[in-house]
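Box 4.2: Ligand-aware structure prediction
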Amino acid sequence: MLTADPQFRDSAVKAVHHRFRIVGAGPTGALLALGLAQQGFSVVLHDRLSAELLLNRSRAYAITHSSRRLLLDLDLWPALLDQMEPFRALRLDDCSAHCTTWFQLRDLRPANRTSEAIGWILDHRPLMRLLLERLQASDLVELQLDDALPAEDVLANAGSREWIVAADGPRSTLRRCAEVPFWTHAYQQGCLTVKLRLTGADQHCAYELFRPEGPMAVLPLGEDRYQVVWSAPLQRCRDRAASSTSELLSALDAILPDGVNAVQLLDDPGAFPLELSLAPRLHRGALLLVGEAGHRCHPVGGQGLNLCWRDVSDLLNLTQAMGHGEIAFTSLARRYSRCRRFDLAGVLLSTDLLIRFFSNHNPLLMPFRRLALFLLKRISWIRRFSLSAMTDGPGTLLRPLPK
Ligand SMILES: Cc1cc2nc3c(=O)[nH]c(=O)nc-3n(C[C@H](O)[C@H](O)[C@H](O)COP(=O)(O)OP(=O)(O)OC[C@H]3O[C@@H](n4cnc5c(N)ncnc54)[C@H](O)[C@@H]3O)c2cc1C
């Protein structure tokens, strides 16, 4: 949709006169650069890390249907499909209320059911390798890696037809330098991530366990390999990450669902702080905030990267309209901020509410938690509604899915 429009390709000459300078070649900045180049815009993409370091992150992402559509539009999906592990069921456990419920393929909206998966797990390395290969092959992208540019210089030297995009992650120096208002709240919870081998787990199922100390996601990586994202008070995460392999495996064994056992760690565990943050406006002058430079949420439900990529998708729709002359160059930033508002607020609020509702042992909440999971289990339209909000974003509940 974003690239296959021949009329738009004809207007690419017009687009070349606009330039985008993107700071941050993580999964958000790199994908945006590729999408803009496919629309005919000239792009300079900077990162302070070298290509090798950009690839070197031991993390796996839960990919939702909104991301699938964007990757399809950018012609990346076929090349990634072999690298991803689909999951056809999502198991939700409230470990304090002792309730379990399942989401299955039939709970997806009909338009999503044909792809035969609720979601996919994609490792960081093959994703970044493909993005960097495609960027290097593009005549319209100038890649400046291993190069830390002072944010003041980037902002001061912006050309008159140039947009500056901050895709430089949660500690964005561009955002701070431009003094864009930013709200942030540090969670007491942090999270521990580790890849490991499990026995007894269903290879085509992703697990989300709500525990009093925080949620734990168990994501299938293929065969018996899984990624665990385990939330708990930050110091406890750090202590667990520093504990011996056998201690960590036993701690995991004690809380994994019955019959599932942790047998071997596949990488070094890492402990990370978590925060909820949002720039109420994603622009200031010619500066646009994209991805975690503009917002961050708790990893419950694996929303993070998908939310960042919906920024990319919405921005690309607007730049495409700008290339067609349908919207003015000067109104791009304002429209972008406005169209992202509902989705960002919806995801940030719902992930925060999930944490508050489920990360405790509060006896007063227990009946409501049981009721919520009972309704989810028994009433199919509630399951469909919840799954659609998770996989397509809350914005699509109000309008039909894009084709
Ligand atoms: C523990 C953990 C688990 C997660 N699990 C999931 C999951 O299961 N599913 C999911 O969807 N999301 C998950 N996320 C979130 C996901 O990792 C982020 O949403 C994603 O990395 C954001 O991408 P980004 O490109 O916006 O930022 P980043 O990935 O942070 O990239 C920013 C880039 O900017 C560069 N940069 C920074 N400053 C400068 C500078 N001054 N000059 C030049 N370059 C600069 C950095 O080198 C980096 O390459 C998780 C996050 C954490 C912490």
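In the box above, the bound molecule is flavin-adenine dinucleotide. The pocket of flavin-adenine dinucleotide is lined by residues 23-29, 46-49, 54, 59, 61-62, 148-149, 167-169, 173, 191, 193, 229, 272, 291-292, 299, 302, 304-306, 308 (CB under 6 Å).
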